[in-house]
Amino acid sequence: MSRTVRRLVRLLVASTALVASAGLSSGTAYAGTPCGSTYTLCVYTDNYYEGSQLQVWSPQAPNYKTLDTIGLQKYNDRISSISSNYGQAICFYSDPHYNGLQFRIGPWEKWSYVPDWINDKISSFRPC
Ligand SMILES: [Ca+2]
User: Fold this and answer.
1) What's this model's pTM, rounded to 2 decimal places?
2) Which of 21, 74, 103, 119 has its CA 20 to 30 A from that of 6?
3) CA 48 – ligand 1 centroid, Å
């Protein structure tokens, strides 16, 4: 590659990145920020990724059979928004141990607010 071509390519890459980040920031209508790729899943007690935030490394962790356990009670029956960086669907349930109503989200989906019928009702979740 000649020096000019290399410079052009570098310029193109830089401008593409700029457009991508501008697109991202202009698309953010939410008050909070969905969790970055550091976590596989974040759930929030308020709409628009606000309120208390539970950051999950792996939705398979046995802890999430029931949010009504020590350290997690403040999320039980309070989840209102969800941000997933997980490559698989995740199911949320209104009762512990994957019982009751089921709300299924697809891979990498962001829900700035969950449907009314499951809002403030989630008590367990897992990949499904
Ligand atoms: Ca809530």
Assistant:
1) 0.73
2) 21
3) 11
